[in-house]
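Lecture 7, part B: from sequences to assemblies.

Below are the input chains for today's worked example.
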Amino acid sequence: MIMEVLIASSTEEICELLEQDSSRQLLAGGTDFMVEVNYRHRSPSSVITIDQVPELQNWHHDGDSVVVGSCVTYREIERGPLATLVPALAQAARTVGSPQIRNAGTIGGNIGTASPAGDMIPVLSALGAVISLRSSEGKREVSLEDLIVGVKQTSLRRGEFIESVRVPVLDSPQEFLKVGSRSAMVISVTSLAFITYPKTRSVGIGLGAVNPIPTRAKEAEVFIADFLDWETMQVDPSGIDHFKDLVSAASSPIDDHRSVAAYRRKSIGILAQRALTRVFTEGVL
Amino acid sequence: MPNDEQPHLNVNGKRLTIQKSWFGESLLFTLRERLGLYGSKNACEQGECGSCSIMLDETLVCACLVLTGSATGRDIKTIESLAPEGSLSTIQQAFIDTGAIQCGFCTPGLLITIKDFLDENTDPTELEIREAISGNLCRCTGYGRIVEAVRIASKTHDESQGAS
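Predicted structure of the full complex, as structure tokens:
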């Protein structure tokens, strides 16, 4: 079967092409989609490539946030100004695949693919990212939690695509940690993002690869707040064990070819502890 | 692209006519099986091994993860452009000198990757070299001699040579 490939050059053009036929497949970096094509799991009759659209390839400051176009690559996120502005996102981007993959793969593709193991997901979740969606009907903004509704399932409407992602610039410690079988070229067994919010004296903890949908360890976030000293950046060690347990309890992992649920549940707690003690030194308050 | 125009790919500075029926293939398949450019190797077809590494608009990517129809009008450089026919680039020579080649299957992908890396980083550390080649699997050498080859090539590498 012949595949029609339409190369979009503007967001308006994407809207029009989707309005003509909303069943058209959107293609960003291709690092997930092409594997399915190569293995004959998918062969859509019409594809719109969107990764050459300038508006989607760029990012900009907007007040206390940065707005990152959906086709900004991991490579762009892992280095340069974005790495300073949103360090946890950069750390996560740096763990994705290889240089080849990071040159092609995009943040919007990671969100749209909606894999539980997507490395942008826990960071965006912990940062409270807002996703801008666009269609010929107009624009709307949703939270990541409202967009990713199941394993590889999104709430995108017909004719709608991911235009950009808004995340806060916080200028305070952030961590991203990941467990995998090697330190490159690996899909997460578990991953975790740890974001500090000094203004509200709170932390955000996003869990990766342990739940079908984006998940924050809310109880652990609330619990650990009482054990933190924001002046000295210390954590009371007496709170750490229960904190770990609460993070593990917020996970609902599965057994699969990459790992087993029990290991994932345990390791996500350890990642949380590690991130916590990287940011806050242990000391009795 | 207007519908009536014959589609083409820009490969190694040449304009090669292609068929619309190839649009749904991977660029790797088109390069190898349609255009006879066998230098880019096909192994995993999932971006895991780096054997099919090419430059697309001066960016290092896996050709197996590029849809042919999305590559029309873009600048493609393959291993075939690394050195003029009958000569070797400094990276190729360093591979030979250090014994960084055994079966040779991963070599084209590694050469393209290292060329791209050395164009940006002229004095790399061993860790940087290892990170740069982390997407290129070699099952023969254990990487030691490849890393050594990159180190040697970094001393003599000339950006103006070959691909990109």
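Note for the exam: The radius of gyration of chain B is 16 Å. Keep this in mind when comparing with the next example.
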